[in-house]
Amino acid sequence: MVQFAKKISHTLIDSFRHIPPSLKLAWRSSKKLCITIGILTLFAAILPILVAILGKWIVDAIMAHDFRLTVYWVIAEALIIAFQAAILRGLFLGQGLLGAKLGADVNIMILEKAVQLELRHFENSDIYDSLTRARQQASVRPVAMVTDTLQLLQNALTFLGYVGLLASFSAWIVLGLIAAAIPATVAEMRFSNAAFRMRNRRSPDNRRLNYLEYVLANDEHAKEVKVMGLSDLFLQRYKSLAYRFYEEDKRLSTSRSIWAYVLSLLATATFYVSYGVMAGMAALGKATLGQLTLYLMAFRQGQQAFQSCLTAVGSMYESNLYMSNLFEFLNIQTLESEDALKKATHPAPPTSHSGIRFENVGFHYNGSDKWVLRNISLEIPAGKSLALVGHNGAGKSTFIKLLCRLYDPSEGRILLDGIDLKEWDLHVLRRRIGVVFQDFNQYQLTFQENVGVGSIDHVDDVPQIRRSVVKGGAEEVAAGLHSDIATPLGRWFHEGVELSGGQWQKVALARGFMREDADVLIFDEPTAALDADAEQVIFERFRQLTAGKTSILISHRFPTVRMADRIVVLEHGQILEQGTHDELILANGTYHRLFNLQAQGYL
């Protein structure tokens, strides 16, 4: 019995653990609604007790044959009932409005946290599972925690009022009222816990279900799915997961309903035993008809109030489990957290520009012993250009991600103008960098916005956008659209236009040139999807566009690579060769061999 009591006590304490932060979220979302709901909750707790007392007075007035007093109390009860209806309607409205506002705010918080996550987080399936769990019922659980707290307060006050009325009749009746409701609540908590664990366990499969739905119903995958006949395979996998979820839900819901019904019979039996005792005493003349009416109403309503208290605790327990997922996700430490930014010792660029230096830099992913880069030491003087050459998987793109501080080195350090990247304010650092990634995004936005997002502060600066369009060689693409740069790109929205791969790459190049103040330009395969004519135009512009800026280029196209001041050949994550184009040709090594292989392809 002692162990059971301790377990119940621990469960109750755990149920309240996330109440303070949840109430804080609600208060921050809307102070006025919280105050209004709190006041209405107090009225809603008191009015049922007044109705019960008025019911006794009405019956007593009837038994006394006092017509005038009977009518008076009936009118009073009608007014209170009308007022109670208004209070409950106001509560329903207030909770609905708070739920909508708080649900939106919590979803925004999740997205704000998601954009702070680093690249390493997005490459970790556990973080994806955490995000999925945080988003599960994110729109309803925070407000449920708040409303359940208020419901607990309301019903507790109402219950105490009824207990005060019943205590004058029999303390045993009060104990029976309390004891009958506890088993159903304990069972409900157990089922809530089981449902929570089941949904958490499903997180990876939920993501897989969403992915299959995306593949089957998205234009990005439509061509390959149809041509290769993949629809039946993916649809079957979707059905298998969906029906498995249904069977699991059905088993849990069925068990939950059966136990709820069986245990509810206990509460019903307790009520009718008490009813019989009270009715018997009234029949023996030991209680008036008014008292019988009051006690029966107090017992019935008190039983419901106490059951509602326990239901609120059970619901709070379940909501607490989901809120733990939310707060766990929101507490993930990231480079872009406020603490990290406060620790930045160099919030502004230094006055001297000495360029970029890698000092014995190595990198491997967390949980892996395989080095992606190792012993990388090189210097890129300010205003000079560097080209990275190597086979796929040699570490070229990782080199770029380290420089953009999407990762931190596992060993060594990277300096910009003599200052370790870790000491830079991330926003200041990244404003100095203009970058075009090989796997650039194709935003379902207008042409103007697709270019303008390269410098978000200038997304509406049409002259700057048009300059960038010219630099990226995308002016002909814009001219061929039905609304010039105002044309929506992609097929997701009305009047959207889909571009070819080469056209999208020109848009991405234009986006990379949007940061006119950036002094470090990075291009990862900038001409991979361009035809020979377009590529030649970009080659001719490239040296001019990067003049006076530090530039880093990754390319398999040697006509582009040879334009760099220095070329580095990476192999298995290490520097194999470095020098100018002429020096590397004379060295007769890997670069010379790759250059000749590509040159033979044009013969």
Give an account of the 3D structure.
The model has no long low-confidence stretch (mean pLDDT 77). With 603 residues, the protein is of the alpha/beta class. The protein has helices at residues 2-15, 19-29, 31-63, 67-116, 119-122, 125-135, 141-167, 171-201, 203-216, 219-227, 231-283, 289-330, 338-342, 396-403, 426-431, 447-452, 462-471, 475-479, 501-512, 532-545, 558-561, 581-587, 590-601; strands at residues 356-363, 373-380, 385-389, 411-416, 419-420, 433-436, 520-524, 550-554, 566-571, 574-579. A six-stranded mixed β-sheet has the order 6-7-8-3-9-10. Strands 2-1-4-5 form a four-stranded antiparallel β-sheet, with helices on one face. Among the domains are: 24-200 and 257-330, ABC transporter transmembrane region fold; 438-499, no CATH class. It contains 23 helices and ten strands. Strand 7 (520-524), helix 20 (532-545) and strand 8 form a beta-alpha-beta unit. Helix 3 (31-63) packs antiparallel against helix 4 and helix 11 (231-283) runs antiparallel to helix 12. The chain is elongated and about 120 Å long.
Give me some keywords for this one.
603 residues; alpha/beta; 23 helices
CATH topology of one domain, by name, is ABC transporter transmembrane region fold
The percentage helix is 55-70%
Name of the CATH superfamily of one domain: ABC transporter type 1, transmembrane domain
Computed over alpha carbons, the radius of gyration is 35 Å
Describe the strand arrangement of the main beta sheet, using strand numbers.
6-7-8-3-9-10
Main beta sheet strand tally, sense and closure: 6 strands, mixed
Q: Strand content of the residues, in percent?
A: 5-15%
| pLDDT averaged over residues | 77
Sheet/helix structural class: alpha/beta
Count of alpha/pi helices: 23
CATH class of one domain: Mainly Alpha
Strand tally, please?
10
Give the CATH architecture of one domain.
Answer: Up-down Bundle
Gross morphology is elongated
Instruction: List segments where confidence is low: pLDDT < 50 over at least 5 consecutive residues.
Output: none
Distance between the termini: 90 Å
